[in-house]
Automatic annotation (TrEMBL):
GO terms for biological process: protein folding. Residues 127-156 form a coiled coil. It catalyses: [protein]-peptidylproline (omega=180) = [protein]-peptidylproline (omega=0). It comes from Algisphaera agarilytica. This is Peptidyl-prolyl cis-trans isomerase. Pfam families: FKBP_C, FKBP_N. Keywords: Coiled coil, Isomerase, Rotamase, Signal. Belongs to the FKBP-type PPIase family. Residues 1-26 form the signal peptide.
Length: 290
């Protein structure tokens, strides 16, 4: 500990000992008795305070030394560099391709009020035109990607359904849905307006699972008329207690809107029908005001 710190410590400790820890005996008002425990606590607290002050001073000195060796002549230079670094990093993260030298030229011209190669009006007009051009290019790229995905999904579906229709136990409906019941239950068939409770696992043709009530650890309940057409149709073909598989063409799945797997993707569901609940009849509905 430095001599300055020791001096501070002595002064602080003396002040503390003359404070609320001092106990004056009634028999001798001129003599103040300081308890040993309170005095020790005061000294310890003061030492900790001095150590914290010294540590902060050392840290500040180290930071000042590091700043002096960073190659900048002033905080103004550091600020300018920091702002430029932030701008450059943001542009790089946004994948915005620019010419850094021209960017620096424009910043200098604008900041110093020098005559630049563009006026502000010209710059804003160009940015608007350029933005529209980029949006158009992005839309065209997205459309091309969608068309390629559609062609691939249609080709995969055509080959799959042509082969799968001859698989053991598979039935093909008029809509193009293919299904197989692997375990037939003895319960009622769900109706088109029923709500059903099912366990299911949805996959793409490649085997990628996109949704599963099994993974969530509990079955799902939903109205049949609130799901994709092929899924709703398949549920009505399986009595309660049944287990089976549904092979749903893209046209009666998510179609061109592009759900899991992209536009017109074929979906495959493992399904277990647990229960079905018909819609409430008027007599079962609560009366107004109840």
């Amino acid at each position: 500990m430095t001599s300055f710190s020791k001096t501070c410590l002595f002064a602080l400790t003396a002040g503390v000992m003359a404070g609320p820890w001092a106990v004056v005996h009634a028999d001798d008002a001129d003599v103040a008795e300081v308890t040993g425990e309170a005095a020790a606590e005061a000294v310890e607290a003061t030492e900790e305070l001095v150590e914290q002050v010294e540590a902060a001073s050392v840290e500040a000195a180290a930071e000042a030394a590091a700043a002096a060796d960073d190659g900048f002549a002033s905080d103004l230079e550091r600020l300018s560099y920091a702002i430029g670094l932030n701008i450059g990093t943001s542009m790089k993260n946004d994948s915005l391709e620019i010419d850094p030298a021209v960017l620096a030229e424009a910043i200098t011209a604008s900041y110093t009020d020098a005559e630049g190669r563009m006026t502000m009006d010209q710059a804003m007009a160009f940015l608007q035109t350029y933005s529209q051009k980029m949006q158009q290019e992005q839309m065209e790229a997205a459309l091309k990607e969608q068309q390629e995905a559609l062609a691939a999904n249609n080709a995969a579906a055509e080959a799959f359904f042509a082969e799968n229709k001859d698989a053991e136990g598979v039935t093909t409906t008029e809509s193009g849905l293919q299904y197989v019941i692997t375990e037939k239950g003895d319960g009622p068939l769900p109706g088109p307006s029923d709500s059903v409770t099912v366990h299911y696992k949805g996959q793409l043709l490649g085997g990628e699972v996109f949704d599963s009530s099994y993974d969530r650890g509990e079955p799902a309940t939903f109205p049949i008329n609130g799901v994709i057409p092929g899924f709703g149709e398949g549920l009505q073909l399986m009595p309660v207690g049944s287990k089976g598989k549904l092979f749903i063409p893209g046209e009666i799945a998510y179609g061109m809107q592009g759900g899991p797997g992209g536009p017109n993707a074929t979906l495959v569901f493992d399904v277990e029908i647990i229960a079905t609940q018909p819609p409430a009849t008027p007599a079962q509905l609560p009366a107004l005001g109840d």
